[in-house]
Amino acid sequence: MTPPWPLDGVKVLDVATWIAAPAAAVVLGDYGADVVKVEQPGEGDPHRRNGASLPSVPKSDVNYLWHLDARNKRSVALDLKHPAGRAALDHLIGWADVLITNFPHPVRERLRLRYDDVKARNPRLVYASFTGYGEAGPDKDQQGFDSNAYFGRSGISDLGRYDGQPPGVPLPAQGDRASSMSLVSAILMALLQRARTGEGAMVATSLYANGLWSNGVMAQAALVDAYIGPRPPRDTPRSALANYYETRDGRWMLLSLVNEDAAFPHLCRVLGNTALLDDPRFRTTAERRRHARELTAILDPILKSRSWEEWHDAMAAAKLTHALIGKAQDLPTDVQAVAAKAVVATDIAEMPRTIASPFEIAGVAPRVATAGPSVGQHTDDVLAEAGLSAQEITALRESGATG
Q1: Is residue 219 part of a domain?
Q2: Minimum mean pLDDT range among 45-54, 135-144, 185-194, 353-362
Q3: Contact predicate 308/253, CB 8 Å
Q4: Is pLDDT of 90 > 60?
Q5: β pairing state of 201-206 and 244-246
Q6: Can you say whether the dihedral through the CA atoms of 366, 368, 372, 373 is positive or negative?
Q7: Do 259 and 137 share a structural domain?
Q8: 4 falls within a domain
């Protein structure tokens, strides 16, 4: 049996759209929080349709993006531009422990959804703000997605390209999901502080700040005026022992031999080419790096002579750090993903497995995922729990403020 979840009894309002902020709410829900998604009546969160509308997202008859980012949530449909709908949200704010929003600042002002607006209603509320570029500054109201704020502005896209090549377009939502964990951390710290002081707080993070944190080595280098050179292509690496190589079966593997002087003799024996040890170009780390292009050219045909599985077995036996460059298509049969609880079973008939929150708590199994809700599926139940009478809920429906 699963013991009580750490966030049992914590009520979270997901007043957000798209991915990063709602993904933070997913993680809280995985560990027991009661997450209520507040959506516009009718079409709801536009993320419901991203699987079909975004050109970079693989297509499927299963709305897997919605299930991934709305699992275990309840949906309340409220038109926040309608006075009665906004008044109903006040009831939910008074009932909740956490409110998550990524609405642009001007929208929050119009909807009276700034921290000072909601703090007056519930001083114990933890208000979690997610933005593209931060809470202040000339770009605070600029629209931010992970492609432009996390990858683009932070320098990740530029630094990831090879010298002389243009930057690549990032894959969908990678920065969103990484950034969501910062919001989770901030919320949990604020809840801990509230347990000590009795007072709520505002916490905030942004795609830009998370991009800089992820790019911390290079970003900090820039802050001390270190030289940041262009990224050399694979055939002229900085180190041939920290490089990608193709195997006979068309897979790519990464060598990552950090302690080169200790590891190089073992590699030469695995490769069946101990003559390299006597080559003056490769006797020391400094010489190997000076001649990285020549060493790469020697290693290429050797490593292409055997399959990934053969090299994996040999290098694992020699304790040489290496890795397969995985393909997404490998995941359904990857036993390690299941063993590590990174892929878990669901209660969703059309999507029986899903990606788990990226951490474990010993002795606590996260909640089994249920399907993302339909728009307004739980409106009446949640509003009643927040203190509205049946007559008030009926009046809301008749006013057009809910659906």
Answers
A1: no
A2: 45-54
A3: yes
A4: yes
A5: unpaired
A6: negative
A7: no
A8: no
